[in-house]
Amino acid sequence: MDVQSINWRHVRLSPYQRAERWHITECRIANGECCAPNEFDPYVPVEVREFTKKMRAIGVTPRFTQRHFELWAALIEILGAEIFTEPFQWNEDDVAYHLLGFKL
Description:
mainly alpha
């Protein structure tokens, strides 16, 4: 694990809270309330971050739910990691269905 990637102020937060804060910060970035990059990026899957950046580039802010945060928190715990460092080796349909919660 890359120790420099971890923001030690976030260690006291649960994986669920980190994912939730990531989404709140993404919404604030989209509204112009704060600037990118999102300090909570390492706490959500790489594919989710890439998807969100693509959508923001066309002016759309994806909304994620409690279910998403629970899923991402469970994944990080199953992986036994503190942060997501590499993308999953899944096809696009699996990413859309399992990480983002919809079918392409």
